[in-house]
Amino acid sequence: VSRFRTAFTLAALAIVGGPVLAQGFAFMPDGGRGLFLGVVGDDQAALARLEQLDLDQAGWMEELASSEMLSEREATTLAGYLSVNFPLPTVDVEADFAQRLPRDGKDLAIANCQTCHSIFSGYLTQRRTEQGWRSIFLSPFHREIEMSEAERETFALYSAANMPIAMEDVPPELRF
Ligand code: HEC
Which string of b and e fits 80-115 if b means at least 16 CB within 10 Å? Predict the structure, then answer.
């Protein structure tokens, strides 16, 4: 029964993707997708303008400077995400906006960094620079992880800004 349930759950997760996987990981800081939805909400005019912009991280930092909703770290996280993922492809414009936002660093870590070893030892407790996070994908056992170049960069920028997490902030059941 449990094997069936695991297979079923994995299949369901593969279909629904990031948002469902993120349940139980509220202790991790939001990534760019979550922050963007929080800041822009369903302000269609803001969406229409922002999704066309093609800026680097510094440019996005300026663009976001007026948003008092974001802490410095959140602004860095969101600017990193947007610099890699925006402008959004114009395909599929009929889709719900939230569905069109690519997975952010938090989504990607939860989806990809806990199948072979614990997310605690391999991810949450790691302090690395952006380059340090990129270098993870060079080792033979990580090279094969199915993440696009844009996803790896999204992941590296999020992780450098938001890791490590203090042990006492990680739920006890994940500390292994
Ligand atoms: C396909 C299996 C697999 C996946 C998926 C995986 N790892 Fe690993 N990882 C390994 C193996 C094998 C080792 C080396 C043996 C060990 O330390 O358990 C390792 C070791 C590590 C180490 C310590 C050694 C080093 O390279 O510095 C870190 C950090 C790490 N992984 C991070 C990650 C992150 C971040 C992710 C998600 C992007 C991830 N891993 C996903 C297999 C995997």
Answer: bbbbbbbebeeeeeeeebeebbbbbbbbbbbbbbbe
